[in-house]
Amino acid sequence: MSNAHYEQHGKVAVIRLDNPPVNGLGHELRRGIVDGIKRAEADDAIKAIVLIGSDQVFSGGADIREFGTPKMVVEPNLHTVIHFIETCDKPVIAAIGGTALGGGLELAMACHFRVALPTAKIGLPEVKLGLLPGAGGTQRLPRLVGLEPALNLIVSGESVPAGMFMGTQLFDEFIQGDLLVGALAFANKVVDEQRPLKLARDLKVEHPKAEAFFLWARTGIAQRAKNYPAPLKCVDAVEAAVNKPFDEGLQIERRLFAELLMSEESAALRHAFFAERATSKIPDIAEDTPTREIKSVGIIGAGTMGSGIAINFLNAGIPVTILEVKQEALDLGVAHIRSVYEGRIKKGKMTEADAEQRMSLLNTTLSYDDLKDVDLVIEAVFEDMGVKEQVFRKLDEVCKPGAILASNTSTLDLNKIASFTKRPEDVIGLHFFSPANVMRLLEVIRGEKTAKEVLATAMQLAKKIRKTAVVSGVCDGFIGNRMIARYQTEALLMLEEGASPQQIDRAIENFGFVMGPLRMADLAGGDIGWAIRKRHYAENPDMKRMVIADRLCEMGRFGQKTGAGFYRYEPGRRDALPDPEVDRVIEECRKELGITPRKISDKEIVERCVYALVNEGARILEEGIALRASDIDIVYLTGYGFPVFRGGPMFYADRVGLMKVARTMEKFAKRPGVTNSDFWQPAPLLAKLAAEGKTFN
To answer: DSSP readout, 54-94?
Structure first.
């Protein structure tokens, strides 16, 4: 059955695109468009053709369900569809409502005329997948809207209102009211007035100083996109639209597209794109699993984390009640929320009216009784099991039946927390990342007794508050923090062995991380890591101590919050400055440990830190803590600053080759003086996949 429906309205044929949810240009839809054009051409009663989707979407571009399948390139491909439109001897009008993105906009630009609702959104987002528009977008858009606006849209990958291009040749008319009615009226006008057919390919790109503009554009883009080749390739393609005949420019676009398609960066970005969409797929949770309605939320704790969590719900229009033990703490929390909104107002990202509307949804209390009617409570108190126990026993007493009780714990046993209640099926982990109102990641921790509908509700709610939710099973640290502990351990061991904080961080940042491990520890707060280490030492007395990190914490050096950690910090600034005192402590600890410092290469730093993530990730997969390797990648891409252009730790290991990764680990295990050789034995799953020549993803 075709995804394109053919209708006749007088002398106008309407080809309606119907491939939910976004009218992706899959094979059946492409064939339907071509068949519709052929049918209209063969019917003498038809004088014009309208291509239309719905008021919500014209077309979102390629059908992602076909990515990586033969259907993606089977004829008619998008180039062929565009050829049929351009060579049609009857006027073809694109009627755009909702969104026209990527291939959808390229399809529309190939039509002879275009009409749109003023509210429609258009864009060419291919650059976000490490690609460029590959169906004539770089050639037609500059001809229709001008060089500078076209390049800005292509390089940014953002979607913008169609009305931005009023007065350009991109749109012939904006429709007020019903899109189809307006499109039919326009089509009849084109026929009645015998308007000549217009093709974007016939236009010239005019710019008085094109050469200087491209020089300026390349300089700026090179600075902003140093790890991503696609933006500069976009410039090359658009330059061809200015300097080359259309068909030659089109060939250049296709060649550049093919080059990018084979790039490591595009492979990583496409992996991230699909991986993020896969996180919502939970094998034993059907799409029709009932969910609970969340109309109000309670939050325990008004600190940085609690107030940050609150902002997410206020932004989504959900009333929030924050509970604290002291009024002063409540006042500080409210002040923090207000300061965030004031900052957005100053940047022009929010109006004062919007801020006040959101603040009106915020309530504060010192009494648990005021949480008796909320649908969801999130605990964001100190990371101590005794404190968690007090909170959950009280919540169990006061909260209504069916209320979801959530913990923001980052490491503690959620099953034990759930056992403090008489309703463990209603308990779930919602681990936000700091700052909670900014970071996209939300680890959703599924306890052994968590009800399916509670998990389904959490995943649904995550979308509502614009978080990327990844499901994790219960273990110490869950996915993200369990892995990062291994990563940090390797950094601290190399500090003992001979590397400096500056070298470690520089090597990791050159690899592409937003921040090196020691700078990250200073930002998070050394006391937090220290508390976790002390708990681990108590649980495992034979565990190797992180002597340097512990010594700095004993000195009260907890990072940015105290002005000193692995680095020193000047008041009001976040610059990590080298500190001779840290060098002294490092030297002192090395002597105590009997370590003669050695020269450590940047390559070793990167491999030990990154492969530590990979090896622990493999164990997490094996244990079923993570549902899939790509979920681990998303945790690290959205929560820990792993470079997006490398696709996440598990994907990166796949690209390096698991056999090479395993061999490097085995060499680390045999290194003279190694203190954690057991860890460097490749995890059984990693060893198995490497031996079989397979990958994680």
So the answer is: -SS-SB-SS-GGGTTSGGGTSSS-HHHHHHHHHT-SS-EEE
CA distances from 540 to 533, 537, 544, 545 (A): 10, 5, 9, 11
Phi then psi dihedrals of residue 523, to 5 deg: -70, -45
Residues 567/578, Cβ–Cβ less than 8 Å: yes
What pTM value is reported for the model? 0.92
Q: Identify the DSSP state of 283.
A: T
Structure tokens given for 374: 């909320």
Q: Supply the DSSP string of 205-244, one letter for each residue.
A: ---TTHHHHHHHHHHHHHHH-TT-SHHHHHHHHHHHHHHS
Look at residue 343 and tell me if it is in a domain: yes
Nearest Cα to Cα of residue 159 among 100, 217, 108, 113: 100
Per the residue annotation, which of 126, 239, 265, 379 is the catalytic one? 126
User: What mean pLDDT comes out for the span 247-258?
Assistant: 96
Mark whether 588 is an active-site residue.
Answer: no
Angle at 643 between CA 562 and CA 459, to 5 degrees: 85
Residue position matching structure tokens 């990764």: 661
For 439-451, the DSSP string reads --EEEEE--TT--
Q: What is the pLDDT of residue 529?
A: 87
Same domain, 219 and 328: no
Q: Which of 543, 636, 547 is nearest to 588 (CA)?
A: 547
Q: Considering the chain, what is the average pLDDT of its residues?
A: 95
Q: Are 380 and 299 in contact (CB under 8 A)?
A: yes
User: Residue 416 — φ and ψ, nearest 5°?
Assistant: -65, -40
The confidence score (pLDDT) of residue 1 equals 52
Residue 373, classified by CB atoms within 10 Å of its CB into exposed (0-12), middle (13-18) or buried (19+), is middle
Burial of 599 (0-12, 13-18, 19+ CB in 10 A): exposed
Within a domain: 268: no
Starting at the earlier edge strand, list the strands of the sheet with 427-432.
362-365, 320-323, 297-300, 376-379, 404-407, 427-432, 441-445, 468-472
Count of positions (residues) in the chain:
697
At 321-377, the pLDDT tens digits run 999 999 999 999 999 999 999 999 999 999 999 999 999 999 999 999 999 999 999
- Among the candidates 432, 447, 472, a domain finishes at 472
Question: Looking only at Cα atoms, what is the longest distance across the chain?
Answer: 94
Average pLDDT of the residues in 196-202: 96
Domain boundary among 425, 453, 472: 472
Residue 572 has pLDDT above 90, yes or no: no
Give 445-473 pLDDT, tens digit per residue.
999 999 999 999 999 999 999 999 999 99
Q: Does the structure show a pLDDT above 80 at 69? A: no
Say if 573 falls within a structural domain: yes
Domains in the chain, number: 3
Q: Is the pLDDT of residue 175 over 70?
A: yes
Residue 106 is among the residues annotated as catalytic for this protein: yes
What is the distance between the alpha carbons of residues 628 and 626, in angstroms, rounded to a whole number? Answer: 6
Q: Which of 41, 106, 206, 554 is catalytic?
A: 106
pLDDT value, residue 62? 85
Is the predicted pLDDT of residue 194 greater than 90, yes or no? yes
**Whether 572 and 595 share a structural domain:** yes
